Amino acid sequence: MGCEEETLVQKICEIYHQISKLESLKPSKDVNTLFTQLVLTCIPESSIDVDKLCENVQDIRSKLIRLCGEAEGLLESHYSTILGFSGDNPIHHLNIFPYYNNYLKLSQLEFNILTGHCTHLPTQVAFVGSGPLPLTSIVLASLHLRTATFHNYDIDPSANSLAHRLVSSDSDLSNRMFFHTTDIMTVSSSLRDYDVVFLAALVGMDKQEKTRIIDHLAKHMAPGSLLMLRSAHGARAFLYPVVDPDDLHGFEVLSVFHPTDEVINSVVIARKYTNNKPIVHSLDQQGLAVAGSIIFPSKCSEIEAFNPLNHGNMIEELAVEEQLS
């Protein structure tokens, strides 16, 4: 590891130790400051290979990913609670979430990618690890897949309760969005019903768990259906787990996107084999490359919530309770 990479790892470890000493990861000035520092440190393009780091740093990386996941969940819960008690249809107020525009961009991109791989628009969509603020599902259902049914899976009952409250007042989405409180590893035959399955970045916090979940999806998803995953590359792998395309057994990897701007997550798109063989399709690979040149944060890249490059201070947004009171 070169001198520059050693300096980078040292700085990340220092920030980790500060984060680990926080009494709470709920939205606050200290949380905002430290995660902003972390994101800005990890964003620059880096050739670092996290698999080659020493055992101690590997341990810190694993713990840091979990801390990022906890902070992300608390941020989502905070805003979902505010929206859920807004007094009327919460869907009308989604723009108070400071990163709502990211979801608008992401949904457009993913819709373009999906239509490039499908002969017809998906009508059955699953999102695994949808969380308390399932904006990817909501935006896709509202703006792009307006007749599709969305099944959102989360193991946390409180997350699903908050998410369900968001759509329950909307006459359209309440009839097309469903929430299942269950471990996806216990779901089998239902997975064959979906044209597309989204797997959140923080579902499967380490390589072994992620691979186990992917293998389960490969066993039960319908042949020809699509799997969309979130991964990370370079120093960004200190924020999210890495999905190795070689671990996608039972799937044909169609493309892997590694953004080089302030967007955190890489995006992996794969198709379930038919009889263990790739499906022949007429995808224009050049067109795919063009489509993949712009990547925006996904439901699973909420850690960008602490990134000040595109948004205002998170703490300023906490005053939205007063706006909706």
From TrEMBL:
GO terms for biological process: nicotianamine biosynthetic process. It catalyses: 3 S-adenosyl-L-methionine = nicotianamine + 3 S-methyl-5'-thioadenosine + 3 H(+). InterPro entries: Nicotian_synth (IPR004298), SAM-dependent_MTases_sf (IPR029063). Coiled coil: none annotated. It is an enzyme of class 2 (transferase). Synthesizes nicotianamine, a polyamine which serves as a sensor for the physiological iron status within the plant, and/or might be involved in the transport of iron. Belongs to the nicotianamine synthase (NAS)-like family. This is Nicotianamine synthase. It comes from Nelumbo nucifera.
